[in-house]
From TrEMBL:
Keywords: Cell membrane, Membrane, Sugar transport, Symport, Transmembrane, Transmembrane helix, Transport
GO MF assignments: 2-keto-3-deoxygluconate:proton symporter activity
Domain of life: Bacteria
Transmembrane regions listed in the UniProt entry: 7-26, 38-60, 72-94, 100-122, 134-154, 160-179, 191-210
Gene coding for it: kdgT_2
Source organism (scientific name): Streptococcus varani
Protein family according to the UniProt entry: Belongs to the KdgT transporter family.
Protein name, UniProt field: 2-keto-3-deoxygluconate permease
Cellular component terms (Gene Ontology): membrane
Keyword ATP-binding in annotation: no
Keyword presence, Ribosomal protein: no
Xref: InterPro entries: 2keto-3dGluconate_permease
Pfam families according to UniProt: KdgT
């Protein structure tokens, strides 16, 4: 724990790096079924991430919601505007097929990508309770809905809103708990440090460094 605390977001990044390293060279090491596979193979990522969204939302009482909106609304608005302008510029110069194997959809997805797990790890070390409570909002931005809206604006296509809704439900559940039972909300919030470590490991299990290197420049860009 002392080692992890020396690095910004270390409680997330160090487990993620170790997990990625192991799964890059030994991808089937933990795929033996049962509890070991459930805990260490990364198959529980959806459950862990959903738990993190709900637990962080437990600290969102009505007063905190206003503070989160005030702090992050302008930041998110500016970020989305920049993403749209750069996406339009990319398509104008390189078209939908892009260059060097980097297509417009890959560029837009990478440009608009938000890493809520890294956000959670950093604000845990440097943020205040308002920043930590914003994790659910940041997770909504990490859904595929955002890049698909931008891509659909450029090249009309069908948009699937279910990933957005599936993130919104645990967020709403957490808000309900936080505003109806403060003792339960406090108990659940105390689990967040452990959730961050498990989340880092689960995310790392899905990162194969060797595949990114084999994919060349586009793979390295997307990985970063």
């Amino acid at each position: 724990m002392k080692l992890m605390s020396k690095f910004p977001g270390g409680t997330l990044l160090i487990p993620m790096f170790l997990s990625s390293l192991i799964h890059s060279f030994f991808p089937n090491l933990f795929k033996i079924g049962g509890l070991t596979e459930g805990l260490l193979s990364g198959s529980a990522l959806g459950f862990i991430l959903g738990s993190a969204v709900m637990i962080s939302a437990c600290s969102l009482d009505f007063t905190t919601i206003g503070k989160v909106a005030k702090r992050y609304s302008l930041l998110i608005g500016i970020r989305l505007a920049i993403n749209i302008l750069l996406s339009l510029a990319f398509v104008s110069f390189f078209g939908l097929d892009g260059f060097w194997g980097l297509s417009a959809i890959a560029f837009i997805t990478t440009l608009t990508s938000t890493n809520p797990t890294l956000f959670l790890g950093i604000v845990r070390d440097f943020g205040d309770p308002v920043d930590q409570s914003a994790f659910g909002l940041v997770s909504l931005l990490a859904s595929p809905l955002v890049p698909m809206i931008i891509y659909g604006f450029i090249n009309p296509t069908n948009i699937n809103i279910m990933p957005f809704i599936s993130t919104l439900i645990p967020l709403i559940l957490g808000i309900i708990i936080g505003n109806t039972d403060r003792e339960l909300a406090k108990l659940m919030s105390s689990a967040m440090p452990y959730i961050i470590i498990l989340l880092g490991w689960a995310v790392g299990a899905g990162i194969n460094m060797l595949d990114a290197l084999k994919a060349g420049i586009p793979g390295i860009i997307v990985l970063n």
